[in-house]
Amino acid sequence: MSNRTLALDDRLFSYFLQHSLRETALQRSLREETALLPMARMQIAPEQGQLMGFLVELTGARKIVEVGTFTGYSALSMALALPEDGQLWACDVSEEWTDIARRYWADAGVAHKMTLRLAPAVETLQGLLDAGQAGTFDMAFIDADKSNYDAYYELCLRLLRRGGLLLVDNVLWGGSVADPNDQEVDTLAIRALNAKIHDDDRVSMSLLPIADGLTLVRKR
Questions:
Q1: I need a labelling partner for 178 at 20 to 30 A (CA). Which of 44, 127, 136, 195 fits?
Q2: What is the H or E stretch that residue 216 is in?
Q3: What DSSP string describes 22-75?
Q4: Chain segment 74-89, per-residue pLDDT in tens
């Protein structure tokens, strides 16, 4: 027994995936296609995608906003768990990457649940607020440029209803957040947001050591 989170060696990680991961053939195909891209490191881990879909089901979410869509794996994982009349707003700036996402969303039969916005996410989120959407979203996911993480966090909190769930990706940043010698801009931005969320009495929170670190935030 252990009173701290286990480190997963290759054998235990393989066991973990074998007894946890339920990935559809389309999800696997999207992940494998994305792995061939130069920016493949931006793809979330499949076990994280499964957790996100589980959280959609667990919370009964019907309305989600995603900041940073890339090739669409995270959005697909959540959309598959949404009810038929659920909606997911996906924010990105790359038509090239999201064209891949659109193809898989269509093949998976969830395209009708998706609204893709190709524009700086701050503009899209502020536009939703200006349109009277504050407090109407059940769930949000942030996985985009780290320098704007704080802005995304504040805007998403305003969009979420009370009790809504916000997920923040890459909060362990490959371990760099714990290295005081790492003063890179992205590392500093993530460190600052981690500290802010930890002390933010507007929310309940838990940082999970899954994939590259995922913080769960519940709006009080």
A1: 44
A2: strand 214-219
A3: ---HHHHHHHHHHTTSTTGGGSPPHHHHHHHHHHHHHHT--EEEEE--TTSHHH
A4: 999 999 999 999 999 9
CA quadruple 183, 189, 192, 194: dihedral sign: negative
Helices marked H in 60-198:
73-81, 95-108, 121-130, 149-159, 185-198
For CA atoms 87, 110, 207, 91, the dihedral sign is negative
**Short-list 57, 45, 16, CA closest to 169:** 45
Question: How confident is residue 186, by pLDDT bands cut at 50, 70 and 90?
Answer: very high
Taking the C-alpha atoms of residue 118 and residue 115, their distance in angstroms, rounded to an integer, is 10
